[in-house]
Design brief:
The chain is mainly α. It is about 75% helix and about 0% strand. Keywords: Antibiotic resistance, Cell membrane, Membrane, Transmembrane, Transmembrane helix, Transport.
Amino acid sequence: MSNLALAVRDSSTMLRRNLLHARRYPSLTLNLLLTPIMLLLLFVYIFGDTMSAGIDGGGADRSAYIAYLVPGLLLMTIGSTTIGTAVSVSNDMTEGIIARFRTMAIHRGSVLVGHVIGSVLQSIISVVLVGAVGVAIGFRSTDATVLEWLAAFGLLALFALALTWIAVGMGLVSPNAEAASNNAMPLIFLPLISSTFVPVDAMPGWFQPIAEYQPFTPAIETLRGLLLGTEIGHNGWLALAWCLGLAVLGYRWSTAKFNQDPK
């Protein structure tokens, strides 16, 4: 069997393994998924009218704030879901299964590939669920073309891939599952200080660079532009650069750490 065929076969096996784990132990994924859903309902129904009036400078319009909020929370959902990946990878490294895999005639990289593909699939499913909640409470994207919807889906998938590789690296360097969960907390914290809830120019001047120069804000603004027809500007290129940069960094970090001989 060629190296490529071996890699595909073993990666498929590891993917099935991770999906079975997610199905048998769904509590972690569900708990992480509840965070963006609860924030969506909280900000729409408790703060929606007030936030909308502040952003638009006019009357309260909860539907306008739903449209503004949902794209940011879709990307926050990806960050939340990938925390589960860091925990899962850390569990594999500390419970001895990786040591067993190293003694078997399987493609070495298939273990990480299975985690990554499984996490991206879970992220996309989580995004669909949060998006469905958004649609149920009033989110609409009437102006987006089919091409823009495809571009939006591609952005979400690429963003999920980039954050997943970073989460895998965090799981590999963590001594236990609790540490992995704590190390991956920036993946939830960064969306909170981005343009998810309010525009960057509405923030205090000293805080604006923190919100602007990070991966979530350009991705959020790009997704808003694709779904709502707002101005994208340079955010599209910045979002693409962040995604590719994080994916390459996470991949190199993860593979280098995984290939180290165990101590």
